[in-house]
Amino acid sequence: MSKFISNLRRSYRLLQGVPKFLIQSLMVSLWFAILTFPIMVIQVNYTANTVEWQWGRLLLILFGGFAGSFIWFLALDRKDNKPSNTSGTYSVIKGRLLDYYASHKKLVMAIVFAIILLIPFASSSYFTRVLISAMIMMVLGVGLNIVVGFGGLLNLGYAAFYAVGAYTYGLLNYHFGIGFWIALPISAFTSVIAGLLVALPVIRLRGDYLAIITLAFGEITRIVLENWGEFTFGPSGIKGIDKPGLFGIDLSPRGEIIYVYIVVFLVLLLTILISRRMENSRIGRTWESLRENEIAARSMGINVPRTKLLIFAVGACIAGVAGALFATNISYINPKSFALLESIKILCVVVLGGMGSIPGVIVGSIVLQVIPEWLRPLQDYRLLVFGALLVVMMIFKPNGLFPKVRKSYVFTKEESEQ
Amino acid sequence: MSLEYFLQVFVSGFTRGSIYALIALGYTMVYGIIQLINFAHGEIYMIGAFSLLILIGVLSMLNLPVLALILIAVLVSILYSAGYGFTIERLAYRQIRNAQRLSLLISAIGMSMFLQNYVLLAQTSSFLYFPKFLEDIPLFQNTNILNASQAVIFSATALIMILLTVFVRYTRTGKAMRALSQDRTMAVLVGVPTNRTISITFIIGSITAAIGGGLVSAQIGQIHFYMGFIAGIKAFVAAVLGGIGNIPGAVLGSFILGLTESFGTTLISSDYEDVFAFIILILILIVKPSGLLGKNRSEKV
Amino acid sequence: MLKIESVNAGYREAVVLHEMTIEVNEGEIVTLIGGNGAGKSTTLMTISGLVKVFGGDVLFEGTSLLGVTPEKIVKHGVIHVPEGRRIFPNMSVLENLDMGSMLRKNRAEIDKDRENVFELFPILHERRNQVGSTLSGGEQQMLAIGRGLMARPKLLLLDEPSLGLAPILVQQIFSVIRKIRDDQGCTVFLVEQNANQALQVSDRGYVLATGEIKLSGESDILLKNEDVKNTYLGAS
Predict the structure, then answer these.
(1) Which domain holds residue A17?
(2) Does residue B144 form part of some domain?
(3) CB-facing half-sphere around the CA of C49: CA atoms within 13 A
(4) Between B178, B179, B191, which is nearest C103 by CB?
(5) Assembly ipTM
(6) How many Cβ atoms are within 10 Å of A27's Cβ, its own excluded?
(7) Which chain C residues are Cβ-neighbours of B97 within 8 angstroms?
(8) Domain check: are A200 and A69 in the same one?
(9) Does some domain include residue A102?
């Protein structure tokens, strides 16, 4: 009953704010109309020396701006004045689900795994492919999560290690016909080397400098891939990369896709397991203390440079593995897939999901791989909407969808009075 | 290499450096004050160029004398860029200012994507021709080393640098900006109007970037919706090179970068043009981790 | 002048102050003493608007300061000199002082106040063009207080001004605090770990422990109080 009343109260307060919001929205839409006027409304035709006035767009900005900012103000108001949500119906359900999960962990996991393994048999090749790329993104996300989320080392060029892994397999396969399973560890190895190479000059740098240097390395990698034609085949890339073999059995195309799916899924599980293990071990705690306060960590005897190198190496290794998976999945790689946009996508996966949280990475990957697919009908407006979504996400959920909740110890009054 | 050729390459590099400096100033000021790498800043530069072109196109139908036309167009395009910078900060950054830095960064990246595609969709994806009106100025017409547009770029950059330095050192807002960048909480306790000062910082940065955009377009003769992206990254590299948060540093870094690129592409190869920026950045940061003029912010333990 | 009424304040993760009630009257020097982590700094931050208030009210000259932005609170004349000095490291002594008077318009009065600060702290005049980070700890503390004075505060909030200073400097600082009140009529709310000195210089005092006021009264009486002597006046 009290829930009902507090909901009513909230609605009433919202309604009270409406007239104020209306005026504000009006002013905002006028501002946008003026601001975007040259670029939206004026189309200069340089060859014919005429000017086209797109008045329709002006109306679009005025009305869209009005509606948009009204919703915006409402949403912001709601965000700032949200009551603590431990008693809402949504959280009650969530709580019950989590309890059930906690007490029946093995059963739930088994069911989930079974479902995941059965999906490719029941769906189209296209859908399976989408899932595979989502899972590869998850692997990358877990890897970057270790570097950024656990270690606190901002890496804006993660795709470089991804590229190294992919090209290692691609080139080995092209030149020497080496199969997937043998190339996989080699890919991991070369990526680790790349990771160490990048990490060495970078250890002493502070957060944002680290970011720009990793971005630099990422870009250098892409540029080299594009321009060193003799070695990397430049922009045209490498075609016809082999799928992984299954003891020499000949698989149908559909069978191949399902096989890749299963392989990727197993790799993902392995990666998550490794990540979880590290997180809860002594190594993980070392990394956490490093992230929280570097100076304090150092004064506790933690070897900071060595730890940073290790984190980078692990992250690079995972990315390399993902690269090999990527190469085998589509059988074609070219430098475009490893540009800055990719590094940023992976970073968004980690941040959107919630730094340092694996369920967050999983959800984030799905969001970031699947949503662009949904946006395909929007054609040219895809990136526009995507950019806008990023901003909106960060404003309303700056800590991601599944922010990591620190395990906290609560002292009850009786304890402290002993 | 003949002396004349050398000087040409030098002047060309210096010009590049000037443009980078105009953009880098905005990056470094914003970083200094809210520790954000404003990825969308390059887009302001691009929008400045586009606004200028559009305004010139529209105004030229009014049969004004050329000088008046250019001046009005430049002024209005600067106003527009300032408006965009202000709006971006209010919209995408203000709310997240106190959250974790990475979220702010992602918001900036999203904003950058949005603006690029906004101009792409609203205008065109092709390269547009830009009138090289600077070349009509009757200066330096006889020498091979320096031409009118380059001279204008130098003078504009020098003028802006001087104005900005004076502004930051002697005006109240300038001191407020410095205070905010040195110790934000203390600045608040001294009464510095945080929101207003930050907005002004963005506006100033956008103005210099827009001027850079207009100048470079008038020199090269074409614009494209993607031009902000790579210029932005390079300008940011320049700012970091010189020590981010530091105005003289940003300028120094920009000139070093411009000259490196100019000589690099001439002497070594032009395919790898973009790589020079990154290589020199890595080299300098290895030797001096906080940038050339950067002060190592000592952390309170 | 300042009334803190049953205030609960703190951070989202933890409420630090519980049902705190404090009064500071015009022209007084009132001190808040307590051990480490008692919530003394939080108290000042609550007044200056940096910390969220969950319940109760903070009144300055009759008006509530709740929900007022810190910048506006400064305009009311409440000047907070936080702990750790926190002078602007890359600005000179003069520039730091200018920052203090930033919100004021009357040039003549500002100059007079600056002269006054230099009279109180002659060493600052000597080092007036030196950059903040090059000053010693004691000089920085003097600069921080001087900067606070440049705002011509109605109420001066001082957070542990004696922290980390040599005894002779501590004496100097405390006599300056006395002087500020005596000569300029400035009201001072002083938060300190150095209970002895704080109680000697102040008129009234409050004792804070784990976010709650345990004792209050005239300072000379508190100085003689057994519990206070045992807990806080041990080493001094």
Answers:
(1) 2-80
(2) yes
(3) 24
(4) B191
(5) 0.87
(6) 12
(7) none
(8) no
(9) no
- Subunit partners of chain C (3 or more CB pairs within 8 A): B
Cβ neighbors of C234 (< 8 A, separation 6 or more) are none
- What is the separation of C-alpha B42 from the centre of its chain, rounded to a whole number of angstroms? 7
C77 lies within 8 A of chain B by CB: no
Domain holding A325: CATH number? 1.10.3470
Read off the CATH number of the domain in which B20 is found: 1.10.3470
| pLDDT tens string A402-413 | 776 654 444 444
| Selection from A368, A375, A374, A372 nearest residue A401 by Cα | A368
Strand-strand pairing, B128-129 and B222-223: antiparallel
Task: From residue A139, give the alpha-carbon distance in Å to each of A126, A317, A366, C236.
Answer: 20, 11, 12, 60
Final residue belonging to a domain, choices A80, A97, A113: A80
Number of domains in chain B: 1
Per DSSP, A401 falls in state S
CATH code assigned to C2-232: 3.40.50.300
Domain boundaries, position B85: 3-287
List all chains that touch chain A, counting a touch as 3 or more CB pairs closer than 8 Å: B
| Residue contact A212–B37, C-beta within 8 A | yes
Q: Which amino acid is at C56?
A: G
Q: pLDDT of A162-210, one tens digit each?
A: 999 988 888 888 888 777 888 889 999 999 999 888 888 777 776 777 8
Same domain (yes/no): A28, A154: no
Name every chain A residue with its beta carbon within 8 A of the beta carbon of B277. Answer: 216
Report yes or no: A179 and A242 within 8 Å, Cβ to Cβ.
yes
Min Cα distance C235 → chain B (Å) is: 26
Buried/exposed code over A192-219 (b: 16+ C-beta within 10 A; e: otherwise): bebbeebbebbbebeebbbbbbbbbbbb
Residue A325 placed within a domain: yes
The reply to whether A68 and A158 lie within a common domain is: no
Which residues lie across from C59 on neighbouring strands?
C3, C64
In a domain, B293, yes or no: no
Token code pair at residue B276: 């020079």
Q: Are residues A231 and A300 in the same domain?
A: yes
Q: From the CA of B154, how many Å to the nearest CA of chain C?
A: 30
d(CA A360, CA A335): 28
Confidence bin at A304 (pLDDT 50/70/90): low
Tokens 């009650």 belong to residue:
A92
pLDDT, residue B264, reads: 85
Strands C187-192 and C155-159: parallel
The residue of C74, C88, C98 whose CB has the most chain B CBs within 10 angstroms, and thus the best one to mutate to test that interface, is: C88
Task: Tell me if B126 is assigned to some domain.
Answer: yes
What secondary structure does DSSP assign to C15-65, as a single string?
A: EEEEEEEEEE-TT-EEEEEE-TTSSHHHHHHHHTT-SEEEEEEEEETTEE-
Considering its fold, how many domains does chain A have in total?
2
Residue A111, in any domain of the structure:
no
Structural domain includes residue B292: no
CB contact under 8 A, B55 and A31: no
